[in-house]
Amino acid sequence: MSNRVDLDAALDLSKLRSRLPARPAILEIRHAPYVDAMGADELMIQVILANDTQDEDMTSVNLQAIRNAVVGAVREDERFPYIRFLTEAELADTDED
Amino acid sequence: MGARVPYEIQLIQQARHLAEKDPTRPYQASLRRAVSGAYYALFHCLVSEVTRTLLGQSPGAESRRHVMARAFAHVEMADASKSFSRAASRGVVELHDSLRRCIPEVSIHLGVAEMCSAFVELQEARHKADYDLSQNFRRHECLELVQRAEDAITAWRGAIAHSSASAYTLSLLLWRKMRKD
Q1: d(Cα B123, Cα B42) in Å, to the nearest integer?
Q2: Residues forming a β-bridge with A44
Q3: What does the DSSP 8-state code read for residue B16?
Q4: What is the predicted pLDDT for the residue at B97?
Q5: Would you give the end-to-end CA distance of chain B in angstroms?
Q6: Whole-angstrom distance, CA of residue B148 vs CA of residue B95
């Protein structure tokens, strides 16, 4: 795939803030190349949330607003963005695996 | 007697039940079946839509709808969904000429876009749930996926009359053949 963009710039939290809901609190947005189950070269985007995130923060409306902001930010990249939400503590658990 | 609950909604309800049971320490088997069920809710929702659109809704067409339902391929449906998802954010110019001509509004309805991206994400999650035991699923992650599937079905129902929904449903069955043109 040829059409890839500067994802660090595209996913810069300071630029995305105005399009993100107040809750859940987002600490960081990470990205990495990802080969999906179909063998396609796609993109994995991890939205890292604060550890004090509550169930009531994770509403459909809030999560869809975050997805829309992320998808809009990487729209010039041809790869499909798989988006995962996890807290900082869950990320640490995952990194230890 | 009340109206029959659509199969895709039965699957959502069952998936939520599985994700919420075992309050202290959920079985991985329950969580994984919940994710798989949420994906199949989307799969059957779309297959039902295509077969009813193409073959009609009469009881007499039911056996033919069941035959057509067997023709859908998961990978092909995901490929079509990725392309429609891309077209939603980048414009319908991303689609095959013949599909583009089916969308006079020149845009993808938000409900179609939500279904497309949810279908791809849920299919990927379902693959991990059914085949990859190297990482555990968390309950909230599964409940989010179940909710995502339910939201996608609701959004999809609001989009069915839009031309992009018709084009999308056609592509789910014919994607490979169109790509060869």
Answers
A1: 9
A2: A32, A82
A3: H
A4: 87
A5: 50
A6: 25
